Amino acid sequence: MIRIPVLAFCCVAAQVVAIQAAAQPTQNTAQADPVLPSYATLAGDVVGAPLIIDARIAEVSPIKSADAPNVKPGRGRVYIEADVLALIRGTNALPARISYVAEIPLNARGKLPKLKKQRVVLFAGPVAARADQIQLTGLDGQLAWSADLDAQVRGITKDVLAADAPPAITGIGNTFHVPGSLPGEGETQVFLQTSTGTPVSLQILRRPGEQTRWSVSLGDIVDNGAGPPKPATLLWYRLACGLPREIPAESLSAEEPANAAAARADYALVLRELGPCT
User: Fold this and answer.
1) Strands (DSSP E) along 148-275, which ranges?
2) Distance CA 176, CA 190 (A)
3) CA torsion sign, 134 to 41 to 55 to 51?
4) Contact between 176 and 186 (Cβ < 8 Å)
5) pTM of structure
6) Phi, psi (5° rounding) for residue 212?
7) Are 251 and 171 in contact (CB under 8 A)?
8) In a 10 Å sphere around its CB, with 0-12 CB exposed, 13-18 middle and 19+ buried, how is residue 177 labelled?
9) How far is residue 205's CA from residue 214's CA, in Å, rounded to a whole number?
């Protein structure tokens, strides 16, 4: 009978455990929650969706290529039936089961992934005279549910529906620059046009030897102390994703060339500090 030293057995066991541990991260990665879209993407989804639904997919029926023209490469069109778990946004009650058409990204093998029983968040609109059907508002109107996604979508929805929600920016109105008494000193005011007619304005203050400060005011009262909006908020989204890339010439028609140039430079600073709408 061959005896294996205890020390050798322990080393073999340790190697087995190490191999198993090395393989574990791959398994965990596959089971991890999907990466959240950016705040701007989710805000755009919420703003554009009369219906936001928490649902679980019950049945999936692939639609043949002949019946699914103009499908984007790398996607497949399917007809889905889903059970409604909660209505996050919507004015009318939905039936327990709804149906819709979706274009789903194919997997690495060029096949449709398994969707049955998957929990999803849907951004959609109603279908006339068909309470049991919806239409997704975009190509990615169906997102895999996660607790973080659910919380962020509900938070944005609450902000969008609030009575004091910042309105969508539709353009730029009058813009003025007033030079100060010292070189490099001045203030620019940019009055914005909005979808609701609610006054929104930008104020940019320059002082010699100080960092340029800017703020946004909602309403008729200009508040230079309000400061810029916090990132990943609805007000930030309205500005970062709604402001034109430059001030139109007609908004500065009453300004002298030097003042107009200063106003454009101040406005460019605001755009830089807001960052891209990503």
Assistant:
1) 169-179, 186-194, 200-206, 213-218
2) 7
3) negative
4) no
5) 0.84
6) -65, 135
7) no
8) buried
9) 6
- Secondary-structure percent of the chain, ordered helix, strand, coil, rounded to 5: 30, 30, 40
**Angle CA 215–216–217, to nearest 5:** 125
Rounded Cα gap, residues 243 and 166, in angstroms: 13
Tens digit of pLDDT for each residue in 105-149? 999 999 999 999 999 999 999 999 999 999 999 999 999 999 999
CA atoms within 13 Å, Cβ hemisphere of 278 = 3
Count Cβ neighbours within 10 Å for each residue of 211-245 and write b for 16 or more, e otherwise: ebebbbbbeeeeeeeeebbeeebbbbbbbbbbbee
Q: Are 68 and 79 in contact (CB under 8 A)?
A: no
CB 153 within 8 A of CB 52: yes
Tokens 């023209």: give the residue.
69
> Which burial class, exposed, middle or buried, applies to 41 when counting CB atoms under 10 A from its CB (0-12, 13-18, 19+)?
middle
Contact between 122 and 55 under an 8 Å Cβ cutoff? The reply is yes
Q: CB–CB of 75/40 below 8 Å?
A: no
In DSSP terms, 135 is beta-bridged to 125
Q: From the CB of residue 61, how many other CB atoms can be counted at a distance below 10 Å?
A: 10
Count the helices and strands in the chain (H runs, E runs): 5, 10
9 three-class SS? helix
Per residue in 40-82, pLDDT (tens digit) is 999 999 999 999 999 999 999 999 888 888 899 999 999 999 9
* pLDDT per residue as tens digits for the range 141-151: 999 999 999 99
Q: How confident is the model at residue 27 (pLDDT cuts 50, 70, 90)?
A: very low
Answer whether 232's CB lies under 8 Å from 39's CB. Answer: yes
